[in-house]
Amino acid sequence: MRFLVLIPLLLASWVAHGADFRNASWGDSQATVVKSEHRKPDFEKPDQIIYYGKLAGMNCAIVFEFNKHGLSRGIYNFSNSYSNPQLYLNDYSKIDGLLTKKYGAGKVHDEWHNENPLFKETPSNYGIALQLGQLTKKTVWEHGDNVIIHHMEYTGEYINHTLIYESKKTKMSEDKATMNQL
């Protein structure tokens, strides 16, 4: 009978302590994060750990960022390279679809940096618009203590595709620090 009572308690404590990014939680130490990944990092410095891997079949750097309080941000930095810029948008749509399935509809913040109808009114030209820096894609979700930012833009050298997980508390304290500097 004791066994039957313990199972629900163990399950409840496990569910209550869900991971925030991969298998890690905000505030975890670097050692705890390394242990949760079950392998040695590909790159490590005092405020960052990087693994190379895949997410949804796409190559990416898996970045764990730390501040004085522990793990504060997790990033998937996708590294697939294409000659056809429309394929980057296919990757973006794939990740966006998976996130929508998991978290519901996010808030879309796409930006057009030029109102050229050749791009804006023709979805088959969105890849070219992205490659020329005319389009930036961004979707944001808020889930529990997490802010999840899916972002794609042309940096002037390459198309940058990232998926960022961060603690709302960390984001608020960083925003406050920035405001204090203004």
Describe the fold and architecture.
- The longest helix is centred in the middle third of the chain and has 18 residues.
- With 182 residues, this protein is an alpha+beta fold.
- It is globular and about 50 Å long.
- The chain has 6 helices and 9 strands.
- Helix content is 36%, strand content 34%.
- The N terminus is likely disordered.
- Strands 1, 2, 3, 4, 5, 6, 7, 8 and 9 form a 9-stranded antiparallel sheet that branches.
- Helix and strand pattern: HHEEEEHEEHHEEEH
Average pLDDT reading: 86
Please bin the fraction of helical residues.
25-40%
Morphology call = globular
User: What's the total number of strands?
Assistant: 9
Beta-sheet strand percentage? 25-35%
Structural class: alpha+beta
User: Uncertain segments of ≥5 residues (pLDDT<50)?
Assistant: 1-16
Summarize the structure.
With 182 residues, the chain is an alpha+beta fold.
How are the SSEs ordered, and which strands pair?
Elements: H1 2-16, H2 30-37, E1 43-45, E2 48-55, E3 58-67, E4 70-78, H3 86-103, E5 107-108, E6 111-112, H4 117-120, H5 126-131, E7 135-143, E8 146-154, E9 159-167, H6 168-181
Antiparallel strand pairs: 1-2, 2-3, 3-4, 4-9, 5-7, 6-7, 7-8, 8-9
Features:
9-stranded antiparallel β-sheet, 9 strands, alpha+beta, disordered N terminus, 182 residues
